[in-house]
Specification:
Blueprint lengths: L1 E7 L6 E4 L5 E4 L8 H14 L6 E5 L5 E6 L3
Parallel strand pairs: 1-3
Antiparallel strand pairs: 1-5, 2-3, 4-5
Length: 74
């Protein structure tokens, strides 16, 4: 399964919003530097889907706020 994600790093509160088209808007407290925000986004999606972090991969957008994420089946 593929998920389009728009990330806001260094936010005051962590939150997830799902848009009508199935994409997600995720705000994380971690900064973008050092790949901390990307790691937290993977953790949030893994918890939301009930899978391990290893099953969540960022396909595109490693240095961008807009990302395409692959989620492997359970």
């Amino acid at each position: 399964m593929y998920i389009k994600v728009f990330v806001t790093p260094s936010a005051r509160k962590e939150k997830i919003e799902e848009k009508k088209d199935g994409s997600l808007i995720i705000s994380v407290r971690e900064p973008a530097s050092g790949n901390h925000a990307n790691k937290r986004v993977r953790e949030i999606i893994a918890l939301r889907e009930g899978i391990s972090i290893a099953q969540v991969r960022i396909l595109t957008g490693h240095h961008s706020r807009a990302k395409m994420i692959s989620v492997l089946s359970r």
